[in-house]
Amino acid sequence: MNAPSKLAELMPQTIEFTLDGQPIQAFDGETIFKAAERHGVDIPHLCFKDGYRPDGNCRACVVEVKGERTLAPSCCRNVTAGMEVQATSERALKSQKMVVEMLLSDMPDEGYKWIGDDATQQHGELSAWAKKLDIAVRPELKALRREQPKADISHPAMAVNLDACIQCNRCVRACREEQVNDVIGYALRGGDSKIVFDLDDPMGDSTCVACGECVQACPTGALMPKSHIGSQQVDRKVDSVCPFCGVGCLVTYNVKDEKIVSVDGRDGPANHNRLCVKGRFGFDYAHHPQRLTKPLIRRAGMPKDFGDAPRPGDWSEYFREATWEEALALTSGKLSGLRDTYGAKSLAGFGSAKGSNEEAYLFQKLVRTGFGSNNIDHCTRLCHASSVAALLEGVGSGAVSNQVNDVEHAGLIFVIGSNPTANHPVAATWMKNAAQRGAKIVLADPRRTDISRHAWRTLQFKADTDVAMLNALIHAVIDEGLVDQEFVRTRASNYEALRENVKGYSPEAMAPICGVPAETLREVARAFASAKGAMILWGMGISQHVHGTDNARCLIALATVTGQIGKPGSGLHPLRGQNNVQGASDAGLIPMMFPNYQRVDNPAVHAWFENFWGTPLDATPGYTVVEIMHKALAPDTDPHKVRGMYIMGENPAMSDPDLNHARHALASLEHLVVQDIFMTETAWLADVVLPASAWPEKTGTVSNTDRMVQLGKRALNPPGDARPDLWIIQQIARGMGLQWNYEGEESGVAAVYEEMRQAMHAVISGISWERLQRDSSVTYPCLSEDDPGQPTVFIDDFPTADGRVKLVPADIIPADERPDAEYPFVLITGRQLEHWHTGSMTRRASVLDALEPMATASMNQSDLQKLGLEAGDVITVQSRRGEVAIHVRRDDGTPSGAVFVPFAYYEAAANLMTNAALDPLGKIPEFKYCAVSIRRGGQPMAAAGYGTGSGVLAAVD
């Protein structure tokens, strides 16, 4: 790269021109509109929206340019040197007013989108400009009003009122150019022209994915969220972070009468105002009637029958309400008693990737200093543990090298083992935008998912053959002389061993194994190696295997031998699943790591934390999620038998593999404390249930998949006697004898953050609490107050012992369990767009429940025909561990011989069937592969009472 060497080279060139008689400066390539805006001149506009391609079709922003016959649309006319512009001349103003009046004349009498308290501003931005320009519609124009189309309320989330549409096309650009969903179009001509969905279908019947970008773009209320039709006046707007996936979209909660009524995307670095269906419409779970509002204690003599379906709305037969004093005393007393009687290893804790960094930090500190062991883990063990293991081994850091939207600078985007349009929808938009600009997307996955529509090549390899296919790509790079020799010589180690190992993995030899033609493998290898930047993004399809660490090792090797790391548009990015799985891992919710991935068995690190926390610490790694479940069922003679657990915001009774075993383990504990917002499947097996705070009810930080530490502020108070999670953790700590005293607002969150910042000084020392309050989002590593953060890392070296990538050869290791005559199909599990994790939040969100209310299994048409099935039939999917009866849907992207089942539904829990076999290094279960049989029929279990039933958010008057 030719980096700028002088400050002047970084500054945009300026152009002198005249605006309304005043000489001003514009930047080279800047429009008249943006230059005027920067200088405080507000030109009317309706079709223009910041961040969108300027269209110039509403003509409300026209200006007069000296020497030109016609008026010019200022939003898409660039400034030229010496140009003389009049934005407020008589001619320009007359035209601006005429446009606004004519558009307003077609509006219905009753508006959909009011602004402020003034009821005359009933058509959003249009009415606002009419007021500013002092326009009243003449009766003659009102008499010519168009015939008003009927409202379309077929969609669960949004109302379509085309009588308020001014055909500005902002919704078309939002759908087709920003989100790239290609649903909204502009049809017909003249007086018949209109906005349509797909082939003029009702919105509810279209292919709309409910991202709501069109709603946020619409200036008049022609497209509105059903929850917020009418007055837009709210009691307060509170800035926060989306609580769902790891993309980390910044949001604003609109609160009225102590309820969130809508959510807007904020211009954060990860999303730039964009949201997905969960982020925009999945908010009302916080107001669900099944929220826990008082501490609960299991009634004496009530058994923990782990085979029972939980009844979250009818818990009183098994639990009784208690005061906080009683519940906390029982919690601390029982946990302390087990520790003192059986030793520190008898206790374990599961923290949460859905809470804040501060909660994660305090939780792991409680387990280590109060419980006395390192038996602490969270859901990273179930998603990217093997990726982190390989990254720490290879590049010395478990976080991403480049941020998702850096795909803008990539020539090739390699997506493997991930379904980004469903699991990371906003991240997927950056990939689709890059493809529109000419980047090549390569999708490598056993399933052909939606992103394949935008892909240059799709490598639909056979499930479980990741290493074979990736080694073939590495072989092709080496064989065809495409290795970046300089990079390998100066930045990598162990290359010779890698080269020797892949000699037997030619594309020709691997093609029959992985199912991808040899020439296609070579073509992709050439494109990857020769691209100006090639970026690898992967998901749990890579990590959730017994060979997950080997899969990630191969990706590291592919990026290294081609020199595609340490520069813009390149590198390694494991897409994080939950909103704070990166931050919770950073903060130390890992059994073998203190905060910032410092090993507990490293003597120097161990001594530092003993001094920092002022207490002796266990020097041996703790047990992981699945190992803890085994230890809960260990015989009484085992000195490490786990007898008591504290689980905060995790739901292992749904998320662990081999659920019958996991639920049996949880039910067998002598004392189980669950801290959550709902009576989850795990809470149903608890002895004490502590009502906690939902994300909108707390202030704290989270760290997204891009290494951004981001601040969310409390928008609501917890309901009833529910309390902030940070407060609960501190109360339990004090009850167990720890002298904690974190003073300040919001349960001392700023004080906790400051202590965490000291523990993680090597990466976030420059990110103060005050800076987060000012900036909302700061990327780490950030080592000083004036450090802007490092979005791209490994530019000069790697944080390994020798500063080089350590290349680790990998060979084919088959799945722990293979299909056979009795179990001939492969089960693949994963998420879907509308639901997330175990469904405890999204299935209580009315819009999300309405969009995807029922569990389904996906199979392709050829397999359905072979089994004599049709879409909608009930099938029973059975493994050696369990079975579910479930409706089947057709999905030709699912490969032959496989069935895909999402894991968010209690009534068809995919993890009843999954295999608990572990990757030996990452200790992650093999969720993505096990053998199953499929037979027609079965009796699907009734829904567990999660859904709201209505599927429609109540409108706010």
Structural write-up:
It is an enzyme of class 1 (oxidoreductase). InterPro entries: 2Fe-2S_ferredoxin-like_sf (IPR036010), 2Fe-2S_ferredoxin-type (IPR001041), 4Fe4S_Fe-S-bd (IPR017896), 4Fe4S_Fe_S_CS (IPR017900), Asp_de-COase-like_dom_sf (IPR009010), CT_Formate-Dh_H (IPR041925), Formate_Dh-H_N (IPR041924), Formate_DH_asu (IPR006478). Keywords: 4Fe-4S, Iron, Iron-sulfur, Metal-binding, Oxidoreductase, Repeat. In the C-terminal section; belongs to the prokaryotic molybdopterin-containing oxidoreductase family. One of its GO terms (biological process) is respiratory electron transport chain. There is one protein chain. The chain is an alpha/beta fold and 957 residues long. Among the domains are: 122 residues, Ubiquitin-like (UB roll); 130 residues, ADC-like domains (N-terminal domain of TfIIb); 191 residues, Dimethylsulfoxide Reductase, domain 2 (3-Layer(aba) Sandwich), CATH 3.40.228; 112 residues, Barwin-like endoglucanases (Beta Barrel), CATH 2.40.40.20. The protein contains 31 helices and 39 strands. A seven-stranded mixed beta sheet has the order 14-13-27-26-25-15-16, with helices on both faces. A six-stranded mixed beta sheet has the order 33-35-34-39-32-36. It has a five-stranded mixed beta sheet with strand order 2-1-5-3-4, sandwiched between helices. β1 and β2 form a beta hairpin. α17 packs across α18. The longest helix is centred in the middle third of the chain and has 19 residues. The relative contact order is 0.11.
